[in-house]
Amino acid sequence: DNSFGGGVENKLHKLRAVALTNVEVIVVEAVDFRRINLLNVPQMSTDEKFELLKEVPLFKKWEHYRLYRLAFSVEQLNVSAGHPITRQGETTHRLVIITEGT
Fold first, then answer.
1. Rounded to whole angstroms, what are the CA distances from 24 to 19, 27, 51, 85?
2. pTM across the whole model
3. In contact, 50 and 8? CB cutoff 8 Å
4. Which listed residue, 59, 82, 88, 92, has the most CB atoms within 10 A of its CB?
5. 9: left (phi over 0), alpha (psi -120 to 50) or beta
6. Cα 78 from Cα 11, distance rounded (Å)
7. Residue 49 class from Cβ within 10 Å (0-12 exposed, 13-18 middle, 19+ buried)?
């Protein structure tokens, strides 16, 4: 089952959990779970990202060690057709580079 929590995603708003003692938790957002779980697209290696970034005009003059560090930290996302990447007028703190598709 590819749904978050094995099918309880739509029921999450009704659930309430109360810590009886001090606890430490790890939180996985449903949107992240779906994005990672539903993608059967192979992820690019850091070397592949590095080679791709070398071709972007903005990074042409960057030293290779800086560009490789960037390649290591960038996140590859696969966006389905029809889903917005950004919205007009939206403030973002991301640089989006379309590597495949239109």
1. 10, 10, 40, 33
2. 0.56
3. no
4. 59
5. alpha
6. 27
7. buried
